[in-house]
Amino acid sequence: MMIRIDDGKGHKDRYTLLGKRTLKVLREYWKKYRPAKWLFEGREPGKRYSSRTAEEVFEQAVKRAGIKKPVTFHTLRHSFATHLLESGVDIRYIQNLLGHSSIKTTELYTQVTTQKIERIKSPIDL
Known about the structure:
126 residues, mainly alpha, 3 domains, two-stranded antiparallel sheet, 6 helices, elongated
């Protein structure tokens, strides 16, 4: 249940999580389009989507969803990291999934809310 990302941010290859719901959608997509080489191909068979095309698809989805806040393609990484942290995933695993060599970089991605911090109990009270 992992996806391999070739030549991602920083020209790094990495793996990320593949949700069961996403797998179902991807299988339906593959059955319909039968891509030759890349899962998401450009206009020419065997050629992959450019990063700019992916950004344009994202921008169109933002408009269709009626999102008014300023968001970028990169916002998805921040959201992914924040949701993982808020669901209790250890920050070191998040660091690995994001491909960060420094935990400090991961900490920037994980915008911790005061509300979540207030729920933490002191070990002495446990």
